[in-house]
Automatic annotation (TrEMBL):
The lineage of its organism: Bacteria, Pseudomonadati, Bacteroidota, Flavobacteriia, Flavobacteriales. Transmembrane segments: none annotated. It comes from Christiangramia antarctica. Gene3D superfamilies: Impact, N-terminal domain. Residues 20-125 form the Impact N-terminal domain. Belongs to the IMPACT family. This is IMPACT family protein.
């Protein structure tokens, strides 16, 4: 079961690829929502208002993916798809890559465009900090105060991440569990006397 994903820690530095007087600026951004993508695209267009094309590709999600590509007036599949190909190649998600083109007066042809957009996207990714993360699920453990010691020992033994706790007469502890370990962790708590566990 794949329970990891890769994402950017911060926006990349702007990179430049040149081909026959055309300039291709590549930028990569970590994103979480389509709304965020829209506002970043707006900023990039404002910063590069003299450019001819602002082509991009994005992907959102950790297990189920949504993606979109945009050729922004370039020949069909000559810009957005080559950019998206690099997102797949680097296996990153929650990402937007924009390649801004300043036309240099010489037509590059579809093959030249594919190469330029792919290369600028690749350079942007190579200039990015990429982090590998685990896909986690959150569980809530419920128990009465006398069981506290038992629960804390189990949490420690299994190296579980406590994300919140309410310790009163009726206690609740929220734990984050890596997806591949969820079945075994659930089983351990579920079969322990006087302790309830459920998925949040």
């Amino acid at each position: 079961m794949k329970d990891t994903y890769k994402m950017l820690t911060k926006p990349s530095e702007e990179v430049l690829f040149k081909d026959r007087n055309s300039k291709f600026f590549g930028l990569a951004f970590p994103v979480k929502t389509e709304g965020e993508i829209e506002s970043i695209l707006e900023k990039v267009k404002n910063n590069h208002y003299k450019a001819r094309h602002w082509c991009y590709a994005w992907q959102l999600g950790k297990e189920e993916f949504q993606y979109r590509v945009n050729d922004d007036g370039e020949p069909s599949n000559s810009a957005g798809m080559p950019i998206y190909g690099q997102i797949q190649s680097f296996e990153v998600t929650n990402i937007l890559i924009v390649v801004v083109r300043y036309f240099g007066g010489v037509k590059l042809g579809v093959g030249g465009l594919i190469n330029a957009y792919r290369t600028a996207a690749q350079m942007a990714l190579e200039n990015s900090e990429i982090l590998k993360r685990t896909i986690d699920e959150v569980f809530i453990i419920k128990f009465d105060y006398p069981e506290m010691n038992k629960v804390m020992t189990m949490i420690k033994q299994n190296n579980l991440n406590v994300i919140d706790q309410k310790l009163e007469l009726n206690c609740k502890i929220f734990i984050s569990v890596r997806k591949k370990d969820t079945a075994s962790i659930f089983e351990k708590f579920n079969t322990t006397y006087k302790i309830e566990i459920s998925k949040l």
